[in-house]
Structure to design on (231 residues):
């Protein structure tokens, strides 16, 4: 079946602009996660959705970052007034919430460059 | 706070040899899960192996095995019979708590290079 997909694959924006990153999880996966990967900070957790609600938003770095999930499926991560330090690869993952270890399945990522 | 440490920024191994990638972790929660992921140069994260904190046996998946030493809080990945395609970045990660879902905390990663 289809894996996790993300769009766009690359995004170049100017400082101060808003950007939206999209994630389509694997069908039937109730859990959805956003992570950020950068050279300086490694892989960092941002937010976790169970269905349409986000019980863990502890990794969002500032109030410029927000995310939503609709229909228990697609999720959008929005970064307002982008800064150069927001440049990173944004990874989305999905997984099940029943079962045993439930690994997370990752998408290919969106590479964000803020000029 | 939970923390994952991978002390080897880079490792080299000869094709067909075995290699061990180190991972230590720190948590006060008695229930947790440990994961290893592979990230080739193409960028996708590939799940390799899982070890639960209450699992009695060390996990194995094909050529991958996990050397789990709970008292030392280490979860080293052993790759046997290395192949050229094993060259990639490897991440150790932990999920804290007794649920089978929730955020992962990642180590800094180890770049493995397999020489022919």
């Amino acid at each position: 079946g289809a894996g996790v997909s993300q769009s766009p694959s690359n995004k170049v924006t100017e400082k101060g602009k808003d950007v939206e990153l999209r994630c389509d999880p694997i069908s039937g996966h109730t859990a959805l996660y956003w992570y950020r990967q950068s050279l300086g900070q490694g892989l960092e957790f941002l937010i976790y959705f169970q269905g349409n609600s986000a019980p863990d938003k502890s990794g969002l770095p500032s109030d410029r970052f927000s995310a939503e999930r609709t229909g228990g499926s697609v999720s959008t991560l929005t970064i307002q007034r982008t800064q150069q330090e927001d440049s990173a690869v944004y990874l989305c993952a999905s997984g099940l919430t029943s079962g045993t270890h439930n690994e997370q399945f990752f998408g290919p990522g969106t590479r964000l460059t803020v000029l | 706070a939970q923390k994952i440490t991978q002390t080897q920024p880079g490792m080299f191994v000869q094709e067909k040899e075995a290699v061990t990638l180190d991972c230590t972790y720190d948590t006060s929660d008695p229930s947790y899960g440990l994961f290893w992921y592979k990230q080739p140069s193409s960028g996708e994260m590939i799940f390799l192996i899982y070890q639960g904190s209450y699992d009695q046996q060390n996990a194995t998946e094909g050529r991958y095995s996990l050397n789990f030493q709970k008292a030392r809080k280490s979860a080293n990945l052993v790759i046997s019979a290395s192949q050229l395609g094993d060259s990639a970045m490897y991440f150790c990660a932990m999920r804290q708590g007794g649920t089978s879902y929730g955020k992962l905390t990642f180590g800094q990663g180890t770049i493995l290079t397999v020489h022919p």
